[in-house]
Amino acid sequence: MGKTKVYLLDGGSLVLDGFHVFWNRGPAGEIRFPCFSVLVDHPDGRFLFDTGYDRNHVERVLPFEKPLQSAGQTLTAQLALIGLRASDIDAIINSHFHFDHCGGNKLFPRAKTICHRDELRAARGPEPFERLGYSDLSFAPGFPSPFPAPPAEATEEAPEETPAPLELPAMLENGPAGRAFELVSGDAEIVAGLFLLETPGHTAGHCSLMVELADRPPILFTADACYSAKNLEMMCISGFHRDPAKDVRSMARLKSLAAEHSAELIFSHDPESYAQYLKAPAFYS
Ligand code: 5PN
Ligand code: ZN
Ligand code: ZN
């Protein structure tokens, strides 16, 4: 049986103010940080953890984040680096549905989408202050979006004011617009040695991912429960959060999980650490 391989797929970078990266601490000023996706090539399937941002979406809806994404940093080009096509991906696992983590989901119509049950609900009906974060709903074409992609021909009707309650049974059967969703709650072992771990607070259903490997300690992908090593050092959460107290507890959970499993933390948006990580076509195994 093959060994699990983990690839970081570079997705370019964005800019935020220091007060958004380090909530209520700053200092102010632009911070450019990386965005990436993770391919877990496991004996039981190929899993993509997050799918980065869609450059067109960010240029249209959040141009102030100054997206830099070359042709070589698209998800399609990154997969090609390791000889893969979209149809080779069996499942997407989303840490959460902020636009910089689900922008590429639509490229994988054949893959099922695995996420926390609470996260799908949150994306379906975000709080007003979460709308920009959840602005790219292209992963679930049935969801009403205040930022609809420009229609191909005719203008679509205006989005509903208040989203109707989520019909979970219908969604579990079909997924939004025919996509297959697998909703988890609680910590879950997706396949042997691949753990989706609840780290809520940044968003309602945020999760981190731990991957066990044959020849090295496990890797714990924090996703946005901890942007960077500096955030962890300072126990300082990002300025985007559903529940700041839960977000801080999740950061503490990541710290204790890393200690308990001797895991290596890989942070979601850390310019300094990212320079040290292996990037595809290189891999961790
Ligand atoms: C990178 C980034 N930019 C803006 C937002 C937001 O409004 O909620 C989350 C988020 C981001 O991750
Ligand atoms: Zn986020
Ligand atoms: Zn993010």
Could you give a short account of the major beta sheet?
6 strands, mixed
The strand order across the widest sheet is 1-2-3-4-5-6
- Our estimate of the beta-strand percent is 15-25%
CATH class of the domain at 5-146 and 168-196 and 269-274: Alpha Beta
The radius of gyration over CA amounts to 18 Å
Shape: globular
Q: Kindly state the percentage of residues in helix.
A: 10-25%
**Low-pLDDT segments, ≥5 res:** none
The overall pLDDT average reads 93
Count of distinct strands? 11
Distance between the termini: 14 Å
CATH architecture heading of the domain at 5-146 and 168-196 and 269-274: 4-Layer Sandwich
CATH superfamily heading of the domain at 5-146 and 168-196 and 269-274: Ribonuclease Z/Hydroxyacylglutathione hydrolase-like
Name the structural class. Answer: alpha/beta
- What ligands does this structure carry? 7-hydroxy-6-methylfuro[3,4-c]pyridin-3(1H)-one, zinc ion
Listing every helix as H and every strand as E from the N terminus to the C terminus, the arrangement reads EHEEHHEHEHHEEEEEHHEH
Report the CATH topology name of the domain at 5-146 and 168-196 and 269-274: Metallo-beta-lactamase, Chain A
Number of helical regions: 9
